Predict the 3D structure of the following.
Amino acid sequence: MANPQIPFIDLKTQYQSLKENIGQRIQKVLDHGAFINGPEVVECEKKLAEFVGSKYALACASGTDALQVPMMALGVGDSPDDEVITTAFSFIATAETIVLAGAKPVYVDIDPKTFNIDPQQVERAITPKTKAILPVSLYGQLPDMDALNSIAQKHGIPVIEDAAQSFGATFKGKRSCNFTVASGTSFFPAKPLGCYGDGGAIFTNDEKLMTAMKEIREHGSESRYYHTRLGINGRLDTIQCAILLAKLERYPWEIEQREKIAHRYNQAFSEIKAKGFVYPFVADGHQSVWAQYTLMVNDRASFQKKLQDVGVPTSVHYPRIMPEQPWYKKNANKCIGDLQHARWAADHVVSIPMYPDMDEKTQNYIIEQVVKSV
């Protein structure tokens, strides 16, 4: 009997449940014709801010723009000596946006349990050149924001949360994207809340900063054809906002489903005693949105091959730390310490399927095959 072919992320089933609502909302945009800065953009920004609990949300063209824009608005990179402290273990956009803003990334090590940035290492890295701290809420879980904000306040440095993977996650009951002077999330289709193309949003409670970021998002324009600062073309299309509005209605249920699936995985995998096998750790006071469900295994290649052979896909987030990516190794490679935990993670992490519409039969099959493959 042929093995089932399980998707890593199932957007097709999700779409079928939202098809009518999405279709109606897209049709409305097609009818009114305001494809840029249409009324759905304003409505989407309002709903996103309400969900997070922030005063302001600014829709933008990608999660990358959602990090670059606030850095530009805060003056990061105004001096060629400016530095931004960040994790060594993330998708490259984290470091990329620092460089694009005109500053230099300074990489520090991670907490080996959560894979998030280690606040103690952040404090060690602060110098007079430090212009901002950019923590990543990796795999759907926030880092220790109390510790990071305390360090930042002590040194008078802004924190910008890279919340690309954590929209909807909480720490002590407060949602990701509402802990720092500004934060950026991604609506790339594979993210917990995704549109049908690239997309993102920035969040802040600072009115002056919001004004600056809105101008930067639209070519630095204070008003039509009047450009008072350097900007980018960072708007989010009206149709993508229409899609997000439809998906937002279902999103609380999806977070609950992700949590239920993760709980089933955790219960099953807690029984595995194989050397080097580690299932995800969620710190006290945290709720993850499980953007990825990521294991640690001793022999990753063998584990992936075994699962591939039985129809269970895997992915690696991420196989190389950022300062060892070729361009960055040559041009932006300042590290504090030996980054041993980040390096270990890059060699041993592996993610298995996680999506809210996964049925119990599929969950059972994945669990069974993981147990056999370790």
Remarks:
- The mean pLDDT is 97.
- The radius of gyration is 21 Å.
